[in-house]
Amino acid sequence: MSFRSILGAVAGVTALALSAGSAGAQEKLKIGFIYVGPVGDYGWSHQHDIGRKAVEKAFGDKVETTYVESVPEADSERAIEQLARTGHKLIFTTSFGFMEPTLKVAKKYPNVKFEHATGFKRAPNLSTYAAKFHEGRYIIGQIAAKMSKSGTIGYVGAFPIPEVVSGINSYFLGAQSVNPNIKIKVVWANSWYDPAKEADAAKALLDQGVDIIAQHTDSPAPLQAAEARGKFGFGQASDMEQFAPKAQLTAIVDNWSDYYIARTKAVLDGTWKSEDTWGGLAAHMVVMAPYKNMPDDVKKMAEETEAAIKSGKLNPFKCPVLKQDGSQVECKGDGALSDEQILSMNFYVKGIDDKLPQ
Amino acid sequence: MRFELTPRASVAPFMRTLAPILAFITAFLIAGFVIWLLGRSPLAAFQVYVVQPLSDPWALQELLVKATPLALIAIGLSYCFRANLWNIGAEGQYVVGAILGSWLALRTHGTDAGIWVLPAMLLLGIIGGALYGLIPAFLKTRFGVNEILTSLMLVYVAQLLLDYLVRGPWRDPKGFNFPQSVTFDPAATLPTLGEASRVHYGTVFAVLAVIVTAVVVGRTLFGYRLRLTGDAPRAARFAGFSSKNTTLAVFAISGGLAGLAGISEVAGQIGQLQPSISPGYGFTAITVAFLGRLNPFGILVAALVVALTFIGGESAQILLKLPLDLTQAFQGILLLCVLSADALVSYRVRIIRRGGGK
Asked: What total number of domains does chain B contain?
């Protein structure tokens, strides 16, 4: 390569990089995604990335997507702003910890639309969205209670935040609905994604006589630990059947594709508005993977429960809901706890023989 | 056949200057080769990684923001490392400094407390970090406990303490039970240098720390004592220098600067306490200290270089869609090249044939 051609290449690249900053009306809509974990986690971030790819597939040449993975929450403002200033007009930040940084950048870039997953702070150009995972957890709780021989089921939690706590409660209420004497053990991994820790947590549970493992962490490690011991478990965030074909009973799959496509379409049509979306099984934001490795009657029960939740006949947090000490939780919703109560849940329900770390 | 490193009798000063430059070129060549293997243009990568961040005012500011905590902590660590004391726990001292400083911010939240709040917070940050750094120092001088182990393990203690505080007593009562404190009042927020800038006064502290350290190490008896204790402990004892006092002093300085970095980051950049307030600055700073060869100005440059690899890595993900793993691999390659170049300048590699050895 001659010196001249190198020079030419550098100039070309510079022009390319500079042109990346300006986006005219006729140009593609650039959409950015910020992930808290690696796209290869086969869990939370992986599912968001599937949503991103679905957007690309649905809109083809009209859009261009970019992602930044494994962004530390305490140092995320720069990455978000970098997307905003490189011409991205719609930006999804996909973890709770990105809330304040997203808010700050949104104020600075009023012409860019922001979407923050699982948070509660909104602005005219900042929407929030999340999924009612606890609906799926009620179903797997029922399956767990049916399938458990020891009568003790386990749960690997990431952090004791409301989203995880409401999941544990829903799981346990589901289990209790088929076996009032069921017991649950909870172990905290204190990480969203740490396969080694998650596996250790699952092994600790199995050593304590647990024979069904549910998890609210992002890797397939707990499920794989169950598979290795010939026990059962559930996939989290994505269908993890390939990692544990004998152990996975079903999985609570996050389906962001429909939402991401709808929001992209809204921006393209000019109808985007700041709003709060919290969808569950009925909205297809939560999808159950095929029910496998279980007897037909258990499968039938699971399908019926799923249908009942979808139709609104069954609410996992139907009143009365009792706290651990037996006191009744005030019923602020329509025959069930209100959305806000579920989104800020920081108590265990009666029957969970453990102390919630606070 | 084996290799042996023998010290060179004399090293030309210009070789010492040239070594890091050659190391950088080598690192870029290796990284360029990897990028070429990935089927991308190494020139485009170089442009996005290095040229663009250094020619764009926004990116230059971000460079300072990112380099600030790294430089502050690494300067502190250089005191320890010079004296041959291994403080691996700067991350913990950073966290404790942030906690103690934030205590005041939360105590005065919503009151009319005046301008004294911020200086007092910074002072508390320094005190917190210094006291926390003194624990391993005290254990070493009093009981002979290995400071590498204690300082490292105290990191986890500090992180869990922070975790407890933001989930429990210091949780924002209006935050839906999410683990985070309230956002600090303006009186408790470190001002930025300029209106729309993210660069805060922490950067000024870092530059001051560099200048003061250059004077202290180069021109004072204390600096001489440090170097002597590190290079020739016996000689230092004969000279009447107490190794105990040196140990306590350097850990206090190191911890204090890490604590200052912690409170500056929380009060200047993040604006609240969260379970995670550092993407591993305390550990990355160890790399920075050695990249800068424990020289104050070298550390300043090294902090900027390491910050550049982070920011360039993000740009590469966004503009070239290169994987994040490449950034991390590049940081490793760079450190290896610099350290190898250093070793090769000071030592000669001799190949000793079998039988020729001991």
From this structure: 1
